């Protein structure tokens, strides 16, 4: 895995950068090139490229993963230059308001599909510099608390009612989205406050990362104002909203309807591969740096993306298509339920035939985990 040729497929995200620049230069309907490329082009490639179910040696050391890691390390300056460069460009060009909004919709798709995803990879690493890169990428989309929520809440409570990000059975995205926006922020803040309390400190202690979150976000807002005025601030906030929407669409897909068995007395079974939806489609895994190998990520959260393992359908549930297709389906609740509800029911029969009453799981009514 030391040769760049093996890592190059995961560098396909860089091709989206000239697509954004081309869209800005051409204007008009061309500003929709970025969502077309990420949602449709990679879905088309998936249909031809097929599946990749091969597993790399999970004990491969970091020293052999330089070309894989590099793409996540260089993305921050690329995203900063692209975003703020386009804020400046919009002020100087003859793009209309609708074109500027369309362009920054594409920027948001890029910062959500690539930027937040890379931040997710980086935040799980032990290297302090990588965690800082993650914080900066998340601050650019004003979703810094995602790090606290993801590490302290989601990974611990996934598949239970205490995890806001686990989409409930028959819960449409239009209901999931406002719920998760509110609950994730609250749960992240409470988790960090509880950590401070365990260390004998008040929540407002300077070591609470929320101070860093707010400071970084304020810095990005100030930079947008200095470059583009209030219009620049509006464009930055708009792309952030699109990016957050993209992230939560993926979160919705990853665990929809999958619940851990309640064992009584506030106890739940341990997280297993069966508690995440997986997809082995090549092109979308290249774009999303193996995020679709989601079961293994929950098994080994700090495992580098090229080493994530895939599982068979006897161990973990499989999606019928990659995330680009499934997130579009999630936006259409009747279509989503027609595709996924029978699969959730089959999953229940396969792994939990002893559970006869699923109502407490469907409505998150089981007692909260201890």
UniProtKB/TrEMBL annotation:
Subcellular location: Cell inner membrane
Domain of life: Bacteria
GO-annotated cellular components: plasma membrane
Domain Fatty acid desaturase, chain residue ranges per copy: 101-327
Enzyme class of the recorded protein, top EC level: oxidoreductase
Primary localization: membrane
Membrane-spanning residues: 7-31, 37-54, 66-89, 101-120, 213-238
Pfam families: FA_desaturase (PF00487)
EC number(s) reported in the record: 1.14.15.3
GO biological process, one term: lipid metabolic process
UniProt entry keywords in alphabetical sequence: Cell inner membrane, Cell membrane, Iron, Membrane, Metal-binding, Monooxygenase, Oxidoreductase, Transmembrane, Transmembrane helix
GO molecular function, one term: metal ion binding
Membrane topology value: Multi-pass membrane protein
Family per record: Belongs to the fatty acid desaturase type 1 family. AlkB subfamily.
Protein name as it appears in the record: Alkane 1-monooxygenase 2
Native organism: Palleronia abyssalis
């Amino acid at each position: 895995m030391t040769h760049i040729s093996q890592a190059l497929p995961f560098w396909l995200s860089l091709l989206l950068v000239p697509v954004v620049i081309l869209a800005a230069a051409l204007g008009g309907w061309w500003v929709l090139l970025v969502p077309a490329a990420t949602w449709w082009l990679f879905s088309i490639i998936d249909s031809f490229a097929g599946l990749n179910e091969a597993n790399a040696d999970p004990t491969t050391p970091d020293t052999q993963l330089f070309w894989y890691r590099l793409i996540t390390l260089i993305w921050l300056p690329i995203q900063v230059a692209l975003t703020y460069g386009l804020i400046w460009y919009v002020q100087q060009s003859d793009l209309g308001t609708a074109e500027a909004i369309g362009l920054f919709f594409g920027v948001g798709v890029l910062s959500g599909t690539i930027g937040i995803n890379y931040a997710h990879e980086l935040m799980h690493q032990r290297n302090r510099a990588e965690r800082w890169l993650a914080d900066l990428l998340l601050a650019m989309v004003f979703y810094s608390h995602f790090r606290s929520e993801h590490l302290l809440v989601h990974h611990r409570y996934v598949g239970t009612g205490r995890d806001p990000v686990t989409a409930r059975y028959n819960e449409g995205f239009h209901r999931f989205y406002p719920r998760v926006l509110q609950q994730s922020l609250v749960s992240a803040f409470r988790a960090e406050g509880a950590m401070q309390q365990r260390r004998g400190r008040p929540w407002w202690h300077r070591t609470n990362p929320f101070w860093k979150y707010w400071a970084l976000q304020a810095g990005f807002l100030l930079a947008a104002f200095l470059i583009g005025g209030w219009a620049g601030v509006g464009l930055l906030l708009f792309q952030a909203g699109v990016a957050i929407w993209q992230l939560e669409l993926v979160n919705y897909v990853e665990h929809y309807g999958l619940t851990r068995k309640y064992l009584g007395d506030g106890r739940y079974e341990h997280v297993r591969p069966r508690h995440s939806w997986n997809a082995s489609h090549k092109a979308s895994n290249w774009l999303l740096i193996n995020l679709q190998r989601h079961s293994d990520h929950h098994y080994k959260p700090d495992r580098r993306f090229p080493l994530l393992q895939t599982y068979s359908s006897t161990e973990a549930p499989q999606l019928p298509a990659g995330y680009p297709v499934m997130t579009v389906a999630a936006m259409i609740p009747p279509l989503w339920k027609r595709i996924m509800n029978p699969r959730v029911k089959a999953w229940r029969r396969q792994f939990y035939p002893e559970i006869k009453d699923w109502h407490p799981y469907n409505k998150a009514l089981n007692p909260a985990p201890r």
